[in-house]
Design a protein that fits this description.
Length: 290
């Protein structure tokens, strides 16, 4: 653990303890940081809307905070009646002992940024990062917001690198668009139902349009497929008109009853049906020869 200056330093080092393997990985991962200006990290709810997921770190060290592949890992913290006084003492110790470091102060500053209201506390609690032992989530949010007054994030700490990586992830166009979409349309259940209904109606409109186009082209293709049959029927109708006798009262009915593409034999004129059948064969043969 190293040399300790005070009993607070002993407790502080227990909060910041980390195994050598995690320490070496952290230095490799955050050795080169993005040298951009200071950015304010978004709240946990906004980060979640941008596609960032929260998971509990493997250790309870306050240094075990990492961000990789859209996953922000945070250590478990139990918030009880002694949490406020403990953190205030640690902040005061780091402020008056320059060489001790600012890891606890940086942690409080980081947590204050991602905790703005009750929704943020509830989200972190659901992921097993915060255990609330003081009552309401509102009290937890108020505690972190009050602790971070007059504090800053140490630019040399690993949290500064995490801070910038999270900010750069949220600034990607797709993540910004997703965050705005969820924030605007998917927070209210009625808004979600409205969007689903609009998508459903839009899909029905597309299906109806496609069905109308397919029906139109299918009818056009049917008419183009049988032009010769239509011509044959028109010629056939001239040959099978009703026979008229000089006497007006004697009219023999026609042997053919037409529909779009067929004819029906009437028993009154069997020879006319045979004539129609032979005419059809002759016409098709002529077409084949041509």
């Amino acid at each position: 653990m190293g040399r300790c200056l005070h009993v607070l330093d002993v407790y502080r080092k227990s909060l910041l303890w980390e195994d050598p393997i995690s320490k070496s990985r952290r230095h490799k991962k955050y050795g080169l940081t993005n040298q951009e200006g200071d950015e304010i990290i978004r709240s946990a709810t906004e980060l979640n809307e941008a596609g960032i997921r929260f998971k509990k770190s493997k250790t309870g060290s306050l240094k075990d905070i990492s961000f990789h592949g859209g996953i922000l890992r945070l250590p478990l913290i139990v918030v009880d009646d002694a949490t406020e006084s403990m953190f205030l003492n640690q902040i005061a110790f780091e402020r008056f002992h320059v060489g001790a470091g600012n890891e606890v102060t940086s942690y409080i500053f980081f947590m204050d940024n991602i905790i703005d209201n009750v929704r943020d506390v509830s989200l972190l609690h659901s992921q097993g990062i915060i255990q609330n032992a003081i009552g309401s989530d509102k009290a937890v949010a108020k505690l972190f917001n009050s602790l971070s007054k007059d504090t800053t994030l140490d630019p040399d700490s690993s949290l500064d690198a995490v801070h910038k990586k999270v900010h750069n992830y949220c600034k990607k166009p797709w993540n910004e668009w997703r965050a705005n979409l969820i924030h605007t349309y998917f927070r209210n259940p009625w808004a979600i139902l409205s969007v689903i209904a609009a998508i459903f109606l839009f899909g029905l409109t597309i299906v109806q349009t496609i069905y109308g186009i397919c029906s139109y082209y299918s009818q056009s293709n049917a008419l183009d497929t049988f032009p010769l049959i239509s011509k044959m029927i028109s010629q056939f109708s001239l040959d099978c008109l009703p026979d008229r006798d000089p006497k007006p009262q004697q009219i023999i009915p026609s042997c053919i009853c037409f529909d779009a593409l067929s004819f029906t034999w009437m028993p009154s004129r069997p020879n006319c049906f045979l004539h129609a059948f032979l005419l059809k064969i002759r016409t098709c043969s002529q077409i084949a020869v041509l």
